[in-house]
Amino acid sequence: MPAAGKRPEVVAVYCPLWHTYDHAGSWKGEGWCEWELLRTAVPRFPGHHQPLEPEWGCFDESDPAWAAREIDLAADHGIDVFMIDWYWYSGVRIMEEALENGFLKAPNRNRLKFCLMWANHHWADYFPAPFGREWNSWLPCRHSLKDTLRVMDYCIEHYFRQPNYWTVEGRLFFSMFNPIHAIQELGGPKGFRDVFDRMNRHLEKSGLPRFHLNAMSWGAEHVPTFREAGFDSTTFYNIISSGKVSENLTERYEDLIVKHQERWAAMSATALPYFPVITMGWDVTPRCEKSVSWPFPPSPLSGNRDYPYISVIEDNTPELFKELCRMARRHVEQTGPTPNAVLINAWNEWTEGCYLLPEKRHGLGFLKAVKEALG
Question: At a CB cut-off of 8 Å and minimum separation 6, what does 270 contact?
Fold first, then answer.
């Protein structure tokens, strides 16, 4: 357990969607990237803050000069690590340019550590997402021993030897977005553990430390499976609903704060260490078809309100966000997880309404909150 009062490391989710890349050009037209959805978003109800207006404009994150600005801004406000969403589909990679051409070539890259969160979910067209129709599937994510070893070889060559790759107690931190999917396809908990034992041996033969393997979880019920499969810790990618949804399909950030505390407590009582996530906000309306009326109706396919046609969080001010950051720090001090860290969603999930980068309404307010509460 960390020493009482020891500052937790601050990890921010980094979503690498904000540059042009070949697959997006093939799917959506040359030069397209998700800035287009942000620019063309529309307000859905009175007082709805859309479209967002990034103070830096729509910049190219794969440019090392822009990456350097991001690194300085993050490090100056108490952020220690970027957790990069990383996409691999049987050898096909997408959006890796933000990390490989931007972050890792920035002249100040050593001011910030980084780690990978393998976003091992299917990649489909939700730009915008069709309402009431099946999504166009672009890249399915499948797992096998052979392909997982290919992942390992690529990461050893390009990432794990980097001097600023994040380690936890001397081990390489590596997270999986959908661990249950991987466990199922790699032969259940025992088969999965065998695969990652083999990967750890491969790391050691390459002169590298073993993994600290992290599971992105959605609830306590899966923790026994994660433990059996060999995971070392859990966290959530985000917490996006309090359960208190108004008739206008909005929720209050104050209620989301309460839900964070409840879910942190539930996860910290499980058999694996849990480090808490702090969700800055939630508004996925830029990924929705503009023709669908507000409040969004249930999907005719499922009868439910399916992503992204779901509720919006309102009143997520820097002041309330700072209080949630303080609560997360206290939670870590009281529970002593490994890693001794908090996770913030997110640095730049603009089209999901989660961002620390400066935006016209609050400027640097959310980053200042991080620095004051956690820095």
Answer: 220, 223, 234
| Predicted TM-score (pTM) above 0.85 | yes
pLDDT tens track for 251-273: 999 999 999 999 999 999 999 99
Q: State the burial class of residue 75 (Cβ atoms within 10 Å of its Cβ: 0-12, 13-18, 19+).
A: middle
Query: What mean pLDDT do residues 315-344 have?
Result: 98
Tell me which residue has tokens 């959908």.
178
355, exposed or middle or buried, with CB in 10 Å at 0-12, 13-18, 19+? buried
Burial bucket for residue 44 (CB in 10 Å: 0-12, 13-18, 19+): buried
For the chain, which domains are there?
A: 14-374 (3.20.20.80)
The pair of three-digit structure tokens given for residue 39, joined into one six-digit string: 């620019």
Per-residue three-class SS string for 183-219 = HHHCCHHHHHHHHHHHHHHHHHHCCCCCEEEEEECCC
Question: Tokens 């480090």 map to which residue?
Answer: 275
